[in-house]
Amino acid sequence: MAEEEVILEAEGLTKEFAGFVAVKNVDLRVRRHTIHALIGPNGAGKTTCFNLLTHFLTPTAGQIRFNGRNITGSSPAAIARMGLARSFQISAVFPHLSVRENVRVALQRKLRNSFQFWRSESVLARLDARALELVAAVGLAAFAESQAVELPYGRKRALEIATTLALDPEMMLLDEPMAGLGQEDIKRIAALIRTVARDRTVLMVEHNMSVVADLSDTITVLARGEVLAEGPYATVSKDPAVVEAYVGTGHG
Fold this sequence. Notes:
Strand content: 25-35%
CATH architecture of the domain at 1-83 and 200-252: 3-Layer(aba) Sandwich
Helix content: 25-40%
Number of strands: 10
Number of helices: 10
CATH topology of the domain at 1-83 and 200-252: Rossmann fold
Shape: globular
CATH class of the domain at 1-83 and 200-252: Alpha Beta
Radius of gyration: 18 Å
Order of helices and strands: EEEHEEHEHHHHEHEHEEHH
Largest sheet: 6 strands, mixed
Structural class: alpha/beta
Distance between the termini: 31 Å
Strand order of the largest sheet: 6-7-8-3-9-10
């Protein structure tokens, strides 16, 4: 794989908690402008791996490079400013702000001083046009003035993606974007992820195998904290070790 094709690379990524090895010697290479899925049975270490990549957890060993730059030891905020942004599994929006205001708060982070809530309404209004563009892009134009708390669950996930997009990341990490969604919402969010991925890179942890099969260019399978297999879905899904890992632990 040509070096310039790789946007995010982890080498020997390891995380121990009081003697328990949650992630063990994981090598991961995510190619630019692809959708890469991280899958595995429950307890495989997927979310721990995600937390290490964005430095919400510090690795016990190993290195992480983003755009060829060693980001190991950088703060989550610094990593987000570099263009690697994460959408959280638990909806991370302000419940009593409107959809438009939530996206506008995220846009404020792109300003020199983050979260300037004291700025005059007229200054903040300049951000409204871009906020409304992003709201429309995720299919929430009809909900722009609704409070986030009033949104159905699937629409909250769309808002979360809009607030992540407001940071204008080069790469998005999506932590179980389909969790808790009904079939109609799954179709909508899958279409949104496909659209988002046209001009950026997406790494996602996801349990829904039909979504993974449909969206992903490359899949990395973790089991007991280690990489079990990697490749396109058609190859990985037939790998006897992968089938055994899922059958042996229950699909999760």
